[in-house]
Structures are given as structure tokens and as C-alpha cells.
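Lab notebook, bench 4. Still working through the backlog of constructs that have no structural model yet. Next entry is a single chain of 82 residues. Request: give me the C-alpha cells for it.
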Amino acid sequence: MLIGKVTGTVVSTRKCESLIGSKFMEVRLIKNGKETEQYIIAIDMVGAGIGEEVLITTGSGARLALPDSKTPTDAVIVGIVD
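Model written out:
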């Protein structure tokens, strides 16, 4: 799991059919409580907004957070930090 802060959205007019309807977010990673210069693009499954801190799962576990586990993805937002 990773933690990060949503900094923006990414628009993709062409994508795999299984990704149609997915919301892509740009997330700035946080390590040791401090924002880094590292960013990741993740599919948003929880309705996160810009400026919110989120939890991200990566790798093969990310596919399990989606309705179709065959969807090609490497990062999914699975929680919003309160």
C-alpha cells in the first residue's frame, strides 16, 4: 500500500475497453509523512477528489480491487484518509 495526495485528473480519450468509465487520478506520493517528487497514475474506485490523501494498492492486488480482475492496471485508489 502507498499513501499519496491527489493532484489532478488524467483524461484518456482512447483506452482499453475494460477501462472505459474509469476515472484516472494523478497522485503525488507521500513517504515518511512528507510529499515526495514521485507521482503515480491510479484508477479511482472511491470517488477521491483533488487535494485528498488516499490509499493506493499496486501490483497484482490492484486488479483485485476492480470489478473485472482481468483489467490491465497497476495502481488503484482504494481508500480516502480521514
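Notes after review: The mean pLDDT is 94. The beta strands are 2-10, 23-31, 34-44, 53-58, 75-80. Flag for follow-up if needed.
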